Amino acid sequence: MKRLHRLLAALSILYLVTLGLATAALAYAVAPVGDPEALGFSSSRLARIAAWQQSQVDAGAFSGAVAAIARNGKVAYLRAVGFRDRAKTIPLQSDAIFWIASMTKPVTSVAAMMLVEEGKLDLAAPVSQYLPEFKGTTVAVETRDAATGKTDITYEPEKRPMIVEDLLRHTAGMIHGVGNAKVDQLYHKHLYDKAGVFHRDRTLADVVSELAKLPLAHQPGEVWDYGHSVDVLGRVMEVVSGQPLDQFLEARLFKPLGMIDTGFYVPEAKLSRLVDPPADNWIGPPDSVLADVTKPTKLFSGGGGLVSTAADYLRFCQMLLNGGELDGVRILSPATIRRMTTNALPSGIRFAGYASGGVGPLAGSTWGLGFAVRSDAAWSLVPGSVGSFSWMGASGTYFWVDPTEQLVVVQMIHASGGSGPFQRPLRNLTYGAFRVPDHGVPDAAAAPVRIDSDTLAAYAGIYRLGSSSSRDMQVPREFGGLGVDIAIERGLVKVVSPIRGMPAAKAGIMAGDIITHLDDVAIQGISLNQAIEKMRGPVNTRVRVRVVRKGQDAPIEVSLVRVQIRLQGAADLQVVNKDGKLLIEASGDLPVLDFEKGAATPVVPMSSNEFFVDGGDHTRLAFLRDGAGPMRLVLNPGPWQITGQRIN
Length: 648
Known about the structure:
25% of the residues lie in helices and 23% in strands.
């Protein structure tokens, strides 16, 4: 009988183990499916992502990249390109570990909302309720003498105390302290080491105590400005939970979600998977940031301290897309996820500092509780559905979630200039890989249609398309302008960077200059979009620009003539009539459906103005003209069409 009991027990254990394996097999699998077409993608067009990333590796933009794309809960694409090391001797693998920098912020924000749901953290409570050192914080007001350019700081009390919600939405008044203004210099002096990074030998409590001694750069609730508020949020979580931030995240988030390679340092056994920083790391000297992630740290930065992999972060994003759940594990309620990924900013908010880099009206984006949220497709510089949410890291990492398309995309790179230059191509190539439902095309060999040469010649030319995809993309804009990127810092119009070869750069305007007047009209205190609209105007019109520059006593005045500026990422097609056939080639910055640069693709006529590609994804196209207007080109006519207009 005892032997029978032992046998039954053994069988029971075997059954449970087998059941566990079966359950694991049904869990969210990070391995890509074998047929991306089943998820609505073109395999050949997905492959363009790796080709583009390889071109960036070859150009030295970054040493390697991992991209992961999931749709409808399944992974369509996971691929590594390039190398793990700066010397480019070790091929990069898809499980490579990257420092994700500010992509830490969404993770910390989600964890904070877990405490909110449990009733342990109150979004409307003053931060000083949890961290008394923030009681009575002052606000720095920087003034500048327009005649001399000299600055000074005065201090005023808060109009209202910063609240916990301010920490999540970057309206607490705190900044990063990386600019040239005096308040920036205060932050830099107290928070950073000589390499320009956090003193990692201090605890989060130590760093936040230093932050509490500094004045705010803005009144709480009045300005969106990117800064250290999520680090303060992490400290609030430590106080509320009674746990160090690393332990809380591991127990409540990473372990339940199966994020096995995410944490504040890389264990010795995994160091062979850690990706080198770029040689010209703009955050500091080589290895100044990443060297510290090779060993345990005292500082658990909720704003930028985590390392992770594409697969781990994909799981985190899929949980968000699923409404707070993954593999049967509930992290947050759907209602909380909706709250975090919709606009949380009060009306009339002013955008400053980093807003020019991706948040604000001119970026077509607002801010939720931890995420940038796409709010206006017409103003956005990247494609995607309204309601998509995203963020990035200074190391070059980037992700977005598109609920409308049930899409998650993660890109892991280490690039010296951050992720900015690499977001738009990735998003265009991803949405451009969506397949259009096949409405059927005729057999090219059956009953060929003949078109006279004059008709074919009328179709030749270059066509500028609104996008390279049919999925909610903004139309590339052209305008008359000065060729300068600007931001608003404490009410001043600051030059972020002049664009090479444009009027501002040719006239000697430099990054860090403060623009004080346009055509003798003072512009201090205006919003970012107002400043940009004032600089734009008809091509060949003239505008006088007055700037003040650090180190120079007298202001500088230059007269600039506006030129035509075309935003990058245009999708153009060149149509050529050759030997009685139309050949089409992508001639802009992006490939379009079956058409690529350097590969003239013949199209087969279906009627006098309708054609199709006999191969690939069988793109259909029609040439249309309304009266005496310019010729239009419509790709895949129907619900998912892309429309372009001939420009010459």
